[in-house]
Hints:
Layout: H1 2-9, H2 14-19, H3 36-49, E1 57-62, H4 65-76, E2 82-86, H5 91-99, E3 103-107, H6 116-122, E4 127-133, H7 145-158, E5 161-165, E6 191-196, H8 197-200, E7 209-214, H9 218-228, H10 234-269, E8 276-278, E9 287-292, H11 298-309, E10 314-315, E11 325-329, H12 335-353
Parallel strand pairs: 2-3, 2-4, 4-5, 5-6
Antiparallel strand pairs: 1-7, 6-7, 8-9, 9-11, 10-11
Amino acid sequence: MRQAVAAALAGSGPDEASRELPDPALDGYGPVAGDAALLGRLGRQLREEDGFDLEASELLVTAGSNMAFNALMQVLLDPGDEVLLPVPWYFNHEMAVRLAGGVPVSVSVPGAELDPERLAAQISPRTRAIVTVSPNNPSGAVVPRPVLEAINHLCASRGLVHLHDEAYHLFTYGGAVHWSPGRAPGSGEHTVTLRSFSKAYGMAGWRLGHALVPRPLLADLAKIQDTVLISPPRLTQVAALAALEAGSAWCRPRIEALEERRQRVLAALDVPGAPWRLLVRPEGAFYALLELDTPLTADVVMERLVREHRVALVSGSSFGLTGCALRLSYGVLEGAELEEALERLVGGLHHLAGVSSN
Length: 358
């Protein structure tokens, strides 16, 4: 694969590049839902390794799980239909609902935790789906199994789709256990599971994800995919097969390195009397949500941290949060760079907590 890319970059023609492919047929269109080899391997993993109930489900390979979510919104929603998004939500989900003409309904609870009862209270005749994200982006929270089970049962009883995004399903720390709603017996009729190769296998630029969807949705999803993409990138699917064969043994040391960074982040933020707090203790993904005691808005604090202290976080307003909440990501920096970033962050937060809004 690398030889094919190198040949193309060196100015070779498409014929020369194609001859370097593991299978020359890969330069042609493939099946809309994904190549049979990858679909089969994903199915075995979900069924045999992860314990999913696939009785009423079908697999769809997409160019990243964001594309799968967007396609689902196009299929599920008519203009004015609603999707319940527990706060903090992932901003691409909120935007995809709007792009489909739908109405994103934010459901907030103190402490940024999931509350099935509050979700139930927000269901209206126009509600079509409830979205959950665990491990969570932006908070790093791992949602407990009983909470996800309750939401899944709520969706089943009210005729809704439970859309569960678990792009970070391998990323848990400190004894936290990830659980997938798609594992519950009978859940396939109303549950969508979204996964991505971007995070688990470090393949963000290769653009590949997959969705496990209720069988009746597949035909319409295939129409959306055929219109936008025709078929998932075939060369990327070969790489994905290799990634699945490498499996968790390849992922484990890299996730352990993230756990070390997480511990350093938590230690740096554990300052007695600090004017900030963690909204949720991060036990997954590689994020943490901070709430700062300041009259400044999160957007202003975000900008001033960059301009004055040379450290970047993301405003909580991007995730539906009010007040001065900020998302911290520790997925990239390590070693001395991480230490320097944390020093800048702690100093900047102390400074901005004492700044008036004028």
